[in-house]
Amino acid sequence: MTETENIASSTYDVVVLGAGPVGENVADRTRAAGLSTAVVESELVGGECSYWACMPSKALLRPVIAQADARRLPGLSASVQGPLDTAAVLARRDYFTSNWKDDGQIGWLDSIGADLHRGHGRLTGERTVTVTGPDGVRKVLTARHAVAVCTGTRAVLPDLPGLDEVKPWTSREATSAQAAPGRLVVVGGGVVATEMATAWQALGSQVTLLVRGKGLLNRMEPFAGELVAEALTEAGVNVRTGTSVESVTRENGTVVVVTGTGDRIEADEILFAAGRAPHTDDIGLDTIGREPGTWLEVDDSLRVTGSDWLYAVGDVNHRALLTHQGKYQARIAGAAISARASGAPVQADPWGAHAATADHDAVPQVVFTDPEAAAVGLSLAEAEQAGHRVRAVDYDLASVSGAGLYADGYRGRARMVVDLEHEILLGVTFVGPGVGELIHSATIAVAGQVPISRLWHAVPSYPTISEVWLRLLEAYRDN
Prior knowledge:
Layout: H1 3-6, E1 8-17, H2 21-32, E2 37-41, H3 47-52, H4 54-70, H5 86-96, H6 103-112, E3 115-118, E4 120-123, E5 128-132, E6 138-149, E7 153-155, H7 163-166, H8 171-176, E8 183-187, H9 191-202, E9 206-210, H10 222-235, E10 238-240, E11 245-251, E12 254-259, E13 264-267, E14 269-272, E15 276-278, E16 310-312, H11 323-342, H12 358-361, E17 364-367, E18 372-377, H13 380-385, E19 390-396, H14 401-406, E20 413-419, E21 424-432, H15 439-447, H16 452-455, H17 468-478
Parallel strand pairs: 1-2, 1-6, 2-3, 6-16, 8-9, 8-14, 9-10
Antiparallel strand pairs: 4-5, 5-6, 7-15, 11-12, 12-13, 17-18, 18-21, 19-20, 20-21
Helix pairs in contact: 2-11, 4-5, 4-9
């Protein structure tokens, strides 16, 4: 008997590579449509979000933000002046990651009737995935209708000599560390960098934030990064913009960073939060004529360009590197796969059931710093660059009654970007304590292309921070 004959094989309607939130949602939608579905995962079922990103980072940040809010309230502030209980915060973080065990997630996959295959999955030809299990045993899975690549991204590390010996942190180590380092250098100015600087400074670390560019959160309106940088500095973070890292070494356990200006910074740990790369380098793309390690371009139904069976869903297609947007894509892809499998019409026109149109026009995001920064749609610069005739309407959130009640000394700002031709909103940005809960209303306005004349009749409750909607609309009308 040959080696090939010893390899077990199974056929499914759909094979999903990756069991993070995106892969789970693809499986959920295809199983709900009656398609047999296999899910392949080499690490923990639940993926990056559940164990090293969204859940642990927000578990770390929630006590930080709650304490900051409490300190702004007379009658309560005196009770919360001491340091956070770091051990308790980390224990709660561990609870929300299920202590890095995936039994519950496996149970959920079982409940929807999807088959889990543990091991490393690689494409080995059209509609074919070979899984090498932890014991080295291989299985060949063949898909009748679709293979969905949901393998996400990995952290990018710079090409610095000797960096491996330094053992730097990436987002994984930053969200799973079991103790606060005494001194932490964070390299980057985006979401991971600002959130982790916020968390670990509050949990007892002395944090230095090194940013190559001019400011923080450069994908948002400029004032978002400015307000977050100001607050981080006030909290004790040493924020240094326009600063590059030329070398990193570890000497007698101490990390030594040399900047582009020749400054020497010592720390206990260093976190690089400087971008993500697609997790496609070892999934067999070469066997189907595609380049390994590249982003996978897709149409709005999430089908890979030039293929009638391969789908790429979530971060791996580089459309919107956000868990909620990946889950949205997964619902679209699952419905599209199911429609094509049954021969039903595919509604791939904008805003159709099988089109991820929101990826282009209405992507929301919240940065859980103090203050929070939340945005959806286009910034003013992006709208102008796209050729829209627009007007930005700004408002000081501190002037809203609900904000003043929320916290003494409230600082924040709101902006809506108005398409003057159609009088609809192309983008909205809020920065301030508690604004993360405002962004869905903005998302509905942008995704629904709600005319400003109709928004007038969406009355915000008083006294809430949402009253900023009325003030923005008044500012647009009166000026």
